[in-house]
Every structure is written in C-alpha cells, then in structure tokens.
Amino acid sequence: MPSLSEAFRGHPVYLHHKHPDFNSLQKLPDSYAWTTQPDNHIHPNSTVPVIDFNHPNAPNLVRHACRTWGVFQLISHGVPISLFARMHKATLALFSLPLHQKLKAARSPDAVSGYGRARISSFFPKLMWSECFTIIDSPLQLFLHLWPQHYAIYCDIVMEYQAAMEKLAAKLMCLVLASLGISKEDIKWAGPRGEFDGACAALHLNSYPSCPDPDRAMGLAAHTDSTLLTILHQNNVNGLQVLKEGEGWVAVPPLPGGLVINVGDLLHILSNGLYPSVVHRVRVNRTRQRFSVAYLYGPPTNVEISPHVKLVGPTRPALYRSVTWNEYLGTKAKHFNKALSSVRLSEPINSSFDVNEDESNDLEVVQLDSP
Ligand SMILES: O=C(O)CCC(=O)C(=O)O
Ligand SMILES: [Fe+2]
C-alpha cells in the first residue's frame, strides 16, 4: 500500500510562486487582491451545531448535523485543553521563525510535507494570505531543519497531538458510522475493536497573518477536504466560514476547547451523498493572526471507498463509484472542485452554488432525500 506521502507525491500540484514575508508587506500586492470582491456577507443568525460527545442522543445529533451542514463543533471529546495550548505554542513558534529558516523545511515541488502554500493554491488565479506546514507521520526530519537545537520539544508536542487525534478520530468514526446505521463490523478496515489501525492522516498547520486589506484578500479559498473527516482546532480568532445550502456563508466562531469536525469527500461517497462534504473557506482580518491545526483523516490509501451497501437500495442507487484515497487524491489534483462529480455515477440533482468568480465554481451540493 502506498503511504499517504507517496500517494500525494504520485499526484503532485505545482506551486510556482515565491514565498512572501507577510510581515514586510504594508499593502496588499496585486497578486493577492481578489479582483471580484469575495462575498463578504455572513449569515448572522445561523449557527453550526455544537455536539457533546457524551450526549445520550449523540448519534442522532451527528446525523442531523452531517445531513444539514456537513460540519459540527464537538465538545467533551476528552482531549485536554492544555494539549491544544501547547500545540498552538508550537505552531506560533514555527510560523514566527524567519522566512529563510522556514524555507529550510520547504516542501519540494512534488512533495506534500513541509512549509509552503496551501495545496489548493494552484487552482486559483489569485494567491492566498496564508502559510501552511504539512506533517505526515514523524515531524522529525522537518523539525531538524527548523530547530537544529530544540527540535525534540516540538516533535514531542506534535507526536502527542497526532496520537490524541488518531484515538479521537477512531472514536468519531464509530459515532459517525453509528449515525448512519453502520457498525464497525460493517467496515473491513475498522479492526476488531474499531481502532481503525490502518487509517492515514496528515496534519496541516495553518497561519493567516494579519492583513492590510482583508476585504479584498482570501486566507484560504472555498474547498472541500478529500478526507473522511477533518478535525480542526482554531485559535481564538474568527475567520473560518462554511457554506450552508440555501443560506450562504456562515461563520464558525472558535469555541474554547471545541473542535470543528468537517465531513470530507470520502465520507460523502461512503454515505452515498447523505452527508455532504462541507464547503469552507477562511477570511483574514486587519489586526490578528489566526492559526489552525487540521487533522486530515482518511482510510488506508488502497482501500476502496464506495457508497455503503446499507445506504444503497432500489429507491437510492449508488451515486458514486468506488475509489481509493490514493486514486481520489489524483482526481482532486486534476479536477479540484469537480472531483466529486467526476466519480459520480448519475447526474447530480443540483450541482451549483454561488461563489464569486475568482473561486472555482461547481462544487457539488447534493440535494438530500430520505435514504
Ligand atoms: O484554517 C482553517 O480553519 C481551515 C483549514 C482548512 O480548511 C484545511 O487545512 O483544509
Ligand atoms: Fe479544509
């Protein structure tokens, strides 16, 4: 089975622009000014559901949130707040390094790990006001470049965070599957105790520096994640927004200790379109730097993911063909927002939504009907 790094390397996206030193930019350069004003309207009265992991009705709450939003905020998940604090300290330390030091761990053109721009940058004509550091498996080699003396303390924090996320992701998978009426025994790679041992994951550390002209800039453009689930922690600065069908962009305010859980494209496929992968983006602001740590979680790279048999029937045929994560990463690298429709077996019922013209159009929004 290809490792996740190999899977990404097999489907490179090339990002040609030089890395800027954001701190030295007093004015928004043209290359960062999104010519069509991004849709700055935020739906004021809508709130992403907040779910307590230990709530007796959690599966139903998750089902409702995933069907109607494709995202929820999770509380009482058992990951100590002190670990988030240490992870954010490490993230801050990393992005505060001088540019020349960060570039020592720069992502090579065909690789995914290391310092660079968001991978989705290549699909947009304008640049994004953000920096990204991707870690798959051990951070050791990368951190040796960044902190030749002090790499060990940062490695320990990241590895502790990865271990906590791996454990939480397996528990979340059981909850999400239960919410679909699927047990862990129905998923071959779940393992006997639902530990999902073969799962693969990548960690995205994201930094969104304060910006001299935030209304015309974009931190991270609208996209869906190619994962089963994404587990995201944000510092206490607003910026994350999700697209709610029929309503528009809705802010996802940081909740102390809360985690944002995104439905990714592979869960969209596995749920036969019942749980739509959430379209999200990040806006920046004039005064405060925003950080986030995203744990991108998926199956073993060679496992076929298809609409689960329990969610397929005479009135609801399989809407997607089966794909491995490895193959889907290739599809995403080629088709980006049209990747889901490209593995769709029948015509989408409704495949468009309004985003501005700078943003790639035609992310797929599935009209849900009862399973
Ligand atoms: O920074 C955020 O809140 C979002 C990050 C994100 O969407 C990603 O890393 O895929
Ligand atoms: Fe994302």
TrEMBL record:
Keywords, alphabetical: Dioxygenase, Iron, Metal-binding, Oxidoreductase
GO molecular function per UniProt: gibberellin 3-beta-dioxygenase activity; metal ion binding
Pathway(s) this gene product operates in, as recorded in its UniProt entry: Hormone biosynthesis; Plant hormone biosynthesis; gibberellin biosynthesis
Fe2OG dioxygenase domain location, by residue? Answer: 198-299
Q: Name one Pfam family in it.
A: 2OG-FeII_Oxy
> Coiled-coil region(s) at which residues?
none
A biological process term (GO) from this entry? gibberellin biosynthetic process
At the top level of its lineage, which domain of life is listed?
Answer: Eukaryota
The name of this protein is gibberellin 3beta-dioxygenase
Q: What is the lineage of its organism?
A: Eukaryota, Viridiplantae, Streptophyta, Embryophyta, Tracheophyta
